[in-house]
Request: fold
Amino acid sequence: MSVKLIQDLRYGDTGKGKISAYESDPARCDVSVRAVGGGNAGHVIMRDTRKISLHILPAGCIHEGVDLVLGRGMVTHLPTLFDDIREAHAQFQSNPVGRLVIAPENHILLNGHKRADAELERRRGNDTVGTTGSGIGPAYADKAMRVGMRMEALRKSPAELKDMYRSLLLHWAATYNVILTPQEEQQDIETLLKGKDRLEDKIQKDMAAYWQKKFDKQARITIEGAQGSLLSIDNGGYPYVTSSPTTTAGHMQGAGIPVRELNEVIGTFKAYDTRVGGGPLLTRMDAEAEQRFQDKGGERGSTTGRLRSTAWLNLSDTQKRAWEEAVTSLAVLKADIFDGESEIPVAIDVDGEGRPLYKRYPMWKESIRGIRKFDDLPDEAQFFYTDISTRIGTPIRYIGTGPDHDDLIVMD
Ligand code: IMP
Reply:
């Protein structure tokens, strides 16, 4: 039996999708879990010529024979879930619905939440959070105000569901001054009825009973982190954060698995930092370098299509996040984007005023794209990875060497 978590140590978008897809292969995994967040997440998985961008389903959906858990810490937009299911079927011929396991406490995100998200951003004027516009903040706010609708509501009769929905309409009007159009209301009601029709029997009565059965069978469980440590609701970067706890502890709470059962935390980060949405970025590149890396790295948000701000790797901060998240190994992604550069700065400390202090790493002459063995990497690349690992104080388990699923070095 094992419980593994793939934890993004930065602002999301560090390549978790690739590691999650590898770790949720049936050779290594029986249960693939999403624990927190919702459709704001965007995991891109590329395999051969196939590409899928997932928002709600965990990466295990591309494989057969793996349970797909949507945990209690999530807020789920049902149409986005249906889109993911369709995509997984179209691209990977898999049947995710048959393997879905939904926590009854998982909250349903509706049109009113999206409208309220836009309204709250509008009220902030020039100081927006830069949310993904997916309704995440208001869905979690409704949960905290104890007025939200949970997945277990889909067990109610259609008439009761509609009544619950009408109470929400009044709440949104009173709280956010959001009045839905008749079309938006109708769409939400149809979504709820479709959800009831397709998902009711996937909603568990008791997740603890489900997990205990899996533990009795020695199941191998992979939890796919959402967003990243620096976007967690309790992070110092508030208010430029998301609305759920996207940390190791938050993912365990969201999955509903006892903390003591966690065996492994794989901390992911890229060889440079990116951020999408508002908020500062300490080691931000100059405009010319930023544009170069945005182009080379395809740094555009997979949920919103926004360009990601790009910065040199803040290793001293990554080291702190790795400590906080109790990582047991590291996954370093996308250093292949440095192919063709002569040297790259990495922030290894800060001075008394909090300004970054850089170490410059010489880069490699040959491309590292697609290399699958550490020993085949050029000396400069070996030094780069080894030094980063030493500074964080944690061994590297995975090195990403290109966009495809198989462009991966797996360390012993
Ligand atoms: P929200 O989660 O949509 O409320 O957005 C809050 C902040 O988190 C914004 O800066 C978003 O750009 C950022 N964010 C949310 N989800 C992701 C993600 O999956 N990757 C990167 N940034 C994200």
About this structure: The CA atoms of residues 86 and 281 lie 36 Å apart. The chain has eleven helices and 16 strands.
